[in-house]
Amino acid sequence: MAQRTLTISFRCFALAVGTLLLSGGLWLLCDADAALTGRILIAGYGPELPVVQDLAKAYERLHPGTAIDLEWDSTVRAIHLVKTGAAQIAVTDQPDPALKTTQIAWDGIAVIVNFANPVREVSSAQVRGLFSTQITNWAEVDGATARVEVIPRTSVNNLTAGFQNSLGLTERMAASAASVRSDQIVLSLVSGRDATVSYISLAAALKAQEDGISIHILTVDQIDPGEATVKNGRYRLRRPVLMLTATQPDPLTESFLSFVRSVDGQQLLRTMFVPVEMSVPATVPSNVQQLDPSSPSS
To answer: What is the CATH code of the structural domain delimited by 34-105+240-275?
Structure first.
């Protein structure tokens, strides 16, 4: 009995020591993370700017010795800046084989029409037809007899590549007006013209509907766009939101990426995008094409 008591006591002692060591290790890790100092640069050119600004501010509040700078413009070659070491993170929706890819969210893409348009549901093939030269009149998709007016998006907007990739749309998209970069301008044009069609980020479209703007989000392939259907891929019109870094990022960059993928970071992302599943390793979807090295906006 005495030997058994001694054995139990030893086990309890070992467990206590192990707990103290683990707690100490966690404290050291947290303390080391809290002690991070330095500055990193995030480069990009797409619609992600507002949420990236929020993420940067939140991270700086948690780590007072750090600074997150942003370089954001349609002319910024974000991926090139990371490759040369001028920036630590590039925000894009296109992977690059030379860099580490971390997916931080999904961006659903909503096809929108004027609320007066009777069309409420289309197939992927019909969406391709509307944005090419194949469908030119709304009557071809059970709408009113009126010529389709396409409001195109600029090629430097990340949405354009994501939209085309999701649909497998390789031919030149039709254009009934000048290309538009801003979601706000697209909303103004579509809400003011009965025969128009365009596409914007799903979060922006849902917010516009809440605000009473006269648009309607089309159902595609009998799937309503929403957080659940965008996340699981049933709603096909989506693009990944990626952060590209060096293959071995520095500790500050790694810490920032961890924050972005944390519960708090994903909550901030939810204001614009669909969060990724935290329990599933980030992967680049098969419908994402490789970046064109000649693109001026990478």
So the answer is: 3.40.190.10
